[in-house]
Amino acid sequence: MRTGSLLLLVLLCSYVMKAQELNPVSWQFTLEESGDSLYLVHADARIEPHWKLYSHFIEEGGPIPTDLHIDSLPGFRQIAAIEEEGKRHGPDKDPIFGIDVSYYMDKVRFTRKIYVAEQAARIKGYVLFMVCNDEQCLPPRTVPFELTP
Q1: Going by fewer Cβ within 10 Å, which terminus of the chain is more open, N or C?
Q2: Distance between CA atoms of residues 45 and 143, nearest Å
Q3: Which residue segments constitute the domains of the chain, with CATH numbers given?
Q4: Is it true that the peptide bond before 91 is cis, omega within 30 degrees of 0?
């Protein structure tokens, strides 16, 4: 009886740990030179089926908007707002948040233009995002990146 209870506890812990590893979005970061010390930082998201990754342009009171953040370092300056490239859905009334939201499914690219005043050793930052499906929303996550010009 004791061995059976221990086995059940181990299986339950394994299930809970697997559930915590749920990660329906994978990210790839690239840097594109745009001329005259300008660069485009791209964050490409691949989204598993049935999951929604929210737009950067979300009203307050809704889900966490996706943000492509570039760390402030000497010689860097952000030139433009975040741009999104992909098949945008919405804005639709979200049943969980009760406001109109826009989101992406399958894939999306977020881009931020930066100016680099001098040759930089690296560009660092992170993407902050939140995803939901029809059954649940996952807590907001950050994924760091580091790119070399």
Answers
A1: N
A2: 11
A3: 23-147 (2.60.40.1250)
A4: yes
